[in-house]
């Protein structure tokens, strides 16, 4: 299993495809709104903080509260992703989904 979910934190040229489990956003949204595809089609790459927000919301929506331990200091990308997900602890999946979709909408307006 690979973890390709967070784009760009040290890996220029990656694409925002999935979060390691082969899930796509349409699995989250019964209305079929494909917010994840909208992110991939943005004309400019979101900032690292925006990408972390997307990651944390997606993980909370799909997997619930964070599990495992925080990665060590030698894994700053893993720590940032863990912290982004952990910051949503206790948030309901439906709320995380709604916030994810709203954030994608904001990014689409801002970044094209």
Task: Compose a concise summary of this entry.
This protein is mostly helical and 112 residues long.
Could you characterize the architecture of this molecule?
There is one protein chain. Helix content is 46%, strand content 0%. The relative contact order is 0.19. With 112 residues, it is an all-alpha fold. It has one domain: Acyl-CoA Binding Protein, CATH 1.20.80. The radius of gyration is 13 Å and the shape is flat. It contains 4 helices and no strands.
Task: Write a concise keyword list for the protein shown above.
mainly alpha, Acyl-CoA Binding Protein
Percent of residues in beta strands: under 5%
Total number of beta strands: 0
CATH architecture: Up-down Bundle
Which CATH class is shown? Mainly Alpha
List the helices and strands and how they pair.
Blueprint: H1 35-40, H2 48-63, H3 76-86, H4 93-111
Helix pairs in contact: 2-3, 2-4
